[in-house]
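User: I'm new to structure prediction. If I give you an amino acid sequence, what do you actually give back? Let's try with this one:
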Amino acid sequence: MRLKIAYCGICGSDIHEYLAAPIFAPAHGTRHEFTGVEIPVSLGHEMSGTVVEIGDNVTKVRLISFASLVYYEDRLISPLAQGG
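Assistant: Good question. You get back a string of structure tokens that encode the predicted 3D arrangement of the chain. For your 84 residues, that looks like this:
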């Protein structure tokens, strides 16, 4: 499914990362030991919006439904996506 993002939150860990970086992100020129990601890492990982497109196998979400998701470095985790 595709969302039109309406809002994106900046949490406390994002602010600490921005002001005193890097804390959670890997140092410049290195990869994170568990995820393998490199800088740059996008801040703002809590979003909400409206569903604007769905795939053929999506059964529990309709167009213009509201949705929220949380982004964790290399993957999206959405309660709606996990449920079908």
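You can read the tokens as a compact description of the fold. Here is one thing that stands out. The beta strands are 2-9, 46-53, 66-72, 75-77.
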